[in-house]
Structure formats: structure tokens, C-alpha cells
Write a structure and sequence with these properties.
It is a single chain. The chain has 117 residues and is α+β, with helices and mostly antiparallel strands. It has a domain of 65 residues. Helices cover 37% and strands 16% of the residues. It has four helices and four strands, in the order H-E-E-H-E-H-E-H. The strands form two sheets. The chain has a two-stranded antiparallel ribbon. Strands 3-4 form a two-stranded parallel ribbon. The protein is extended. The two termini are 37 Å apart.
């Protein structure tokens, strides 16, 4: 069928050996991390530009208010990816080592998803 399967290590090796590969510029604190779209509940919907500094600062907040989170904790992701609070939870999970579960996509089954998680 013309499909090739590669291990992750093979993909990395292919990229490393490709001279035409695009170079990677490390982000700066003021580089845009994501465009977060507002719902428009108080006006027209709009995109908000969140920087790396914004997202790291918000993800660090639990530490400063005394909330201890670690790899024994689990969150469930049910917000759209572009939602700023969803981004906060995702990045906080990466920084603190939390487990992330994703809901089935049906808000009416969220309690079932929590139970399964």
C-alpha cells in the first residue's frame, strides 16, 4: 500500500542527516507560545497572544500559593486546546509531572470519563 513505518529513533536520525531540514530557533521569553481565542461572551471573539513568559508564570502559580502537585496527581483535559486555562493545566502538568487524561469528547459523559480515569 506504499506505507512505511519508522521508529521514533529512525525519524530523528533521518532528520539529523537531512541537510535541507529547517533550523530550530529556541523561543525567547517574549516569543508567542499560543494564540488563545476568547469566547466573545463580553464582546467580539478575539485572539490573545500568550508568550512563553505568560504561560510559565501562570504554570508556576501553584508553587507560590502552596499547592503541591506531583506525578501522583492526575488531571482530566476537557477544554478546547486553545483555551487559556486548558493551556495552563497542560503546561503545569508537563512542569510538575502530572498525569493527563482526556475526556471522550461528550460533555454529558464527563462523569463516566472521570470514573474511568
Amino acid at each position: 500500500m506504499g506505507i512505511s513505518l519508522y521508529s521514533f529513533a529512525e525519524v530523528i536520525a533521518m532528520g539529523a542527516s537531512d541537510d535541507s531540514a529547517v533550523s530550530f530557533d529556541e523561543p525567547k521569553a517574549d516569543s508567542i507560545f499560543i494564540f488563545s481565542y476568547t469566547s466573545g461572551t463580553t464582546g467580539n471573539p478575539k485572539a490573545v497572544m500568550l508568550t512563553h513568559k505568560n504561560i510559565i508564570a501562570s504554570a508556576s502559580c501553584p508553587i507560590y500559593i502552596g499547592v503541591v502537585l506531583d506525578n501522583k496527581d492526575t488531571i482530566i483535559s476537557y477544554l478546547p486546546y486553545a483555551h487559556s486555562f486548558g493551556q495552563f493545566l497542560f503546561v503545569t502538568s508537563l512542569i510538575r509531572g502530572l498525569r493527563i487524561g482526556y475526556y471522550s469528547g461528550d460533555p454529558l459523559k464527563l462523569l463516566d470519563d472521570l470514573q474511568a480515569l
